[in-house]
Amino acid sequence: MVENNEVELSEAEAEQYDRQIRLWGLESQKRLRASKVLIIGLSGLGAETAKNIILSGVKSVCLLDNEKLKEIDLYSQFLAPSDKIGENRAEASLQRAKALNPMVDIITETKAVDDLPDSFFTNFDIVCATGLKQEQLERINNICRDNNKKFLCGDVWGTFGYMFADLVDHEYSEEIVQHKAVKRGPDDTEKNARETVSITVKRRAIYVPLQNALSTDWTKPELRSRLRRGDPSYFVMKILLRFRDEYNRNPDPAKRKADTEILLRMRDELVKELSLPVGFVSDALLTNVFGIVSGAAAVVGGVIGQEVVKAMSQREPPHNNMFFFNPLKCVGFVELYGQ
User: DSSP strand E in 167-242: where?
Assistant: First the structure.
């Protein structure tokens, strides 16, 4: 939980965040203003996530990336100018990121996550990780859990994307609307009217680690019933994470034919492993997972930014625990895995 006892908004901050304060209240904005955020991976998704979080008015943001800016990044990465190709992606994004909100402290880190000690990740209230292998994601998630820090991760491949959230043991407030009967006059025989009143209630949500969510037992009847709904997004995510783990990269547009064959082979292996219905994961979902399409990055980055704001402000129910964007259906949805 982010403490905000000593945080006071300046007059300039109150003016800057006036709309947000009206939306979710002064105390929630103070909690945001006390929050320190780490964003790993400055791809198109990382840029969208950074933009949303910086504009929300957190205390500080660290942009971590050890990759060099490539020409393909420019199709979705709007924080890094084209004349910075070949430079570190985080450093190339710094100037435009600072210009979004001068009231937020923004720094960069150019080391790879494997070269950073566990203690580095505990310096932040929440970590948002993109573009990492499953082992790296699980390592950082476990560090966060052990130190009661919140963790989100996500990725966009082509037009497909996902987000996972582990807020550990999260307390939040939610405003609910109730209908209350009121008398229209002093005469008891007169017909009663109803008015709506808003009340704030305290709630709690318990999360599971990423490892649990990714090792879901699909032999359970309650999970097999999900297959009848017909959305394979969870399995598409697992295939793409497996591809990254095995080849140390994402599917490459320059190797579309060869990589598509690999993805379809991995699909067939996963279908056999989990006894999924044949044809459940269609070819079409695995032929549009090359590069990062800016529209999909905007959707998933918007969701991650929204969930960071909700988690840090402790306002409104957060997603528990996975969000998927299915481009074939052009729909986003939330499902719970690992419990």
Answer: 169-182, 193-206
Which helix (H) or strand (E) is 271 found in, with range? helix 256-274
d(C-alpha 158, C-alpha 147), whole Å: 34
Round to whole Å and give the CA distance between 116 and 33: 26
Vertex 63 angle, CA 62 and 66, to 5°: 130
User: CA gyration radius for the chain?
Assistant: 22
| CA–CA gap between residue 199 and residue 221 (Å, rounded) | 38
pLDDT (0 to 100) of residue 187:
58
- The kind and range of the H/E element at 60 are strand 60-64
Q: What is the mean pLDDT of residues 61-67?
A: 98
Q: How many Cβ atoms sit within 10 Å of the Cβ of residue 223?
A: 14
**Do 55 and 104 contact (CB within 8 A), yes or no?**
no
Is residue 321 a contact partner of residue 151, using CB atoms and an 8 Å limit?
Answer: no
pLDDT in tens, 258-281: 999 999 999 999 999 998 988 899
Q: Could you give the C-alpha distances from 331 to 1, 144, 156, 160, in angstroms and in order?
A: 32, 30, 14, 10
- The Cα 103–Cα 310 span in angstroms is 20
- Alpha-helical segments (H) within 130-182: 134-146
Burial-class residue 202 by CB neighbours within 10 Å (0-12, 13-18, 19+).
exposed
**CA–CA separation, 263 vs 243, rounded Å?**
7
Token reading at 191: 């017909």
Cα distance between residue 27 and residue 8, in whole Å? 10
Q: Which of 202, 161, 152 is nearest to 308 (CA)?
A: 152
Question: What is the DSSP secondary structure assignment for residue 78, as one 8-state letter?
Answer: -
